[in-house]
Design a protein that fits this description.
Largest sheet: none
Low-confidence stretches: none
Radius of gyration: 18 Å
Mean pLDDT: 84
Number of domains: 1
Order of helices and strands: HHHHHHH
Number of strands: 0
Length: 181
């Protein structure tokens, strides 16, 4: 049976498909002359991200990758040092996403005016945060698991909240562009 076919997995995939649809609609409305070309590419990229997230969930790819990494560490006799490996990977990912976010904010954010541009930038930033969450789930063996899946359910908050923010940005963007007719 496919890993994502449980009630929570189906709900997540439905949410992801809804967000992908909203981003696709925003991309359609982003066609020039009413929208900007980069807006269209951003919305299409986000739609693709959410379709990939459906596939990750449907085929349980995250669990397969995590299990493969654990098996590789066991075969190499380095499973006992997995926390160090995990910490290094998590630090690299966090630094990379932080650098991406900072660059995006400084280079694009300082030059952008207008609510449509801001909606696109918020959606892109949130999409980047969701990629970070996926990577953290991939490298999590124990310490990050406690944080992501612990009593606060930060995994759910980040996943559902991020998805809803991107969907809201896409809907807002499409509505703003549509009013420009």
């Amino acid at each position: 049976m496919w890993g994502g076919l449980n009630p929570l997995g189906v709900a997540a995939m439905t949410l992801y498909l809804g967000v992908a649809l909203a981003c696709t609609c925003a991309a359609i409305f982003a066609r020039p002359p009413r929208g900007h070309r980069w807006h269209r590419y951003a919305w299409l990229g986000l739609a693709i991200l959410f379709v990939v997230m459906v596939c990750l969930r449907l085929f349980d790819i995250e669990e397969i990758i995590r299990n493969s990494a654990r098996d590789a560490l066991r075969e190499q006799g380095r499973y006992s040092t997995r926390r160090e490996v995990q910490a290094i990977i998590a630090a690299i990912v966090l630094a990379g996403v932080a650098a991406f976010g900072l660059t995006l904010a400084v280079v694009k954010g300082s030059k952008l005016r207008g609510r449509r541009n801001q909606a696109v930038m918020v959606a892109i930033g949130t999409g980047g945060a969701l990629v970070l969450l996926i990577v953290l789930r991939l490298v999590s063996f124990h310490a990050i698991d406690a944080l992501l899946y612990g009593p606060l359910k930060l995994n759910w908050i980040g996943d559902i909240g991020g998805s809803l923010i991107v969907a809201a940005g896409a809907i807002y963007y499409a509505a703003r562009v549509r009013r420009m007719r």
